[in-house]
Amino acid sequence: MRRIYACFFLTAAALSVLLPLKLAHADGTIGMELNKVETAGQGCRIYMVFSNKTPEAIESFKPDLVFFDTNGVIADRLVVEGGPLTAGKTRVKLFDVAKLGCAAIGRVLLNDIRACAGHDRAACLAITRTSSPSDIPFIK
Question: Which CATH number is 92's domain given?
């Protein structure tokens, strides 16, 4: 009987440590960070960090991005593939904005989510958080 109680308490103690770690990792959001830009020919290469902090994988995640110039005028629009996004995983994706130099980008808008495989697009947009440590604001 003592063994049963000991096993129960050890299991409860382990869960009390591990469960909060899992929940802290899975906060139910999708993060998109415009991390870095660099010149690529006549255009601009964008380094985007995607973080899936949901408990489910997303096979296809296609954000609709609108690029504004430094005067606030729409300069370009791209739909990019950010997936697959493994649950609890962070990854970096690169894509090029061929028609716009980096210095000409004033801000980037997450306009919509065009695909969020296996999930409602509006719900995916609602849980997506944008950020940017670069000089270019990334807004929603």
Answer: 2.60.40
